[in-house]
Amino acid sequence: MYVFDYGAPIGFRLAMRQPERVLGIVSQNGNIYQEGLGPKWAERAKYWANPTPEPRAQYESAFAPETIKGQYLTGEKPGTVGPDGYSLDIAHTTEPGYAERQDDLIFDYQTNVALYPQFQDYVRQYQPENLAAWGKNDPSFIYPGAPRS
Questions:
Q1: Which of 33, 6, 28 is CA-nearest to residue 124?
Q2: Cα(56)–Cα(106) distance, integer angstroms
Q3: For the chain, which terminal residue's Cβ has fewer other Cβ atoms within 10 angstroms, N or C?
Q4: For residue 61, what are the contacts with CB-CB under 8 A and spacing of at least 6?
Q5: pTM, full prediction
Q6: Which residues are registered as beta bridge partners of 37?
Q7: In the prediction, which pLDDT does 136 show?
Q8: Percent share of the chain, pLDDT over 70
Q9: d(CA 85, CA 89)
Q10: 27 forms bridges with which residues in the sheet?
Q11: What confidence tens digit (pLDDT) does each residue in 131-145 have?
């Protein structure tokens, strides 16, 4: 099973349903530990506890082109990251309802964090082979989550 970044909990939810079907996991920044949540998650936890329009509105800046580029380019040598990934992400932000859907996902991610202990129990109990690859500059799912994986 391959899990990646923000969508990794989907894979772990599926794995817990049918653990006998998962022989191994390749995890690319696929965090299942509190230690792997970057600093911005503390602000998101405040939003989860108080889901009013004001904190929700602050996430709109997360979809600005410069913010998206920063997710790809921060910490990398200039000219080493092609524009394909961030250009595609930026193009998606123009779709109707995009920001609202993303805000919903940010709010819903709290259900994944609540399941982290169950994901960890699954890994301990079934011990699938695991290869954890981590981008050292990822601002969301930070490297300290990798050694735990």
A1: 33
A2: 9
A3: N
A4: 67
A5: 0.89
A6: 141
A7: 83
A8: 99
A9: 6
A10: 3, 132
A11: 999 888 888 898 888
pLDDT of residue 55: 86
- b vs e for 94-125, b when ≥16 Cβ sit within 10 Å of the residue's Cβ? eeeeebeebbeebbebbebbebbeebeebbee
Quick one: pLDDT at residue 135?
84
What is the DSSP track for 106-126? HHHHHHHHHHHHHHHHHHHHH
User: Amino acid letter at 143?
Assistant: Y
User: Alpha-carbon torsion 75, 80, 83, 86, what sign?
Assistant: negative
List the structure tokens of 148. 């735990």
Higher pLDDT, 102 or 25: 25
- Give 92's contacts (C-beta < 8 A, 6+ positions apart): 98
- Tens digits of per-residue pLDDT, 23-39? 999 999 999 999 999 99
Structure tokens at 28: 């690319």
Asked whether the beta carbons of 148 and 36 are under 8 A apart, the reply is yes
